[in-house]
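SEQUENCE-TO-STRUCTURE ENTRY
===========================
What this section holds: a protein sequence and its matching fold, both as plain text.
Question of interest: how does this chain fold, as expressed in backbone structure tokens?
***
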Amino acid sequence: MTVTTSGLSFEELVRASERRLLRLGLMLTGSVHSAEDLVQTVFARAHRRWSRIIELDHPEAYLRTMVVNEFLGWRRLLKSREIALAEPAEEPSGEDIGARQAQRDAAWRLLARLPRQQRAVLVLRYYEDLPDVEIAELLGIAPGTVRSNATRGLAALRATLSAEEN
């Protein structure tokens, strides 16, 4: 079913934003499958609210906010203590990807140790390249809280790396 308002259909917005939202979900969850579940859940909720979402100035930004909020609220992710690792490349290449894959896996493990809000702040700041003010609006917190979460998250990552080196 195509829901159309102001010339933009729900399907068009999904097609336009799906890859970016999946990348964001992957950075937040560390798992392709969890990212797909996260984005699918958001799209299902967005479809029910489509008439309101399409009236917004930036519906894609609203969907991004929904992805982050859904990630922060997922209770079933809290039950799992598994460490998700990045999936191997679909097609083999001529390069040796062992070291790169090891670094990627280590990064996922480090991010997975952080509290959810600190992880969200770091992903939004360094992966999505959002300024603190936008992150604060997206998460519904003060810009100072964004900065303190980023500082604490980076400090925790540094401490973990230092402990692993010794």
About this structure: The first helix runs from residue 10 to 29. The CA atoms of residues 23 and 123 lie 11 Å apart.
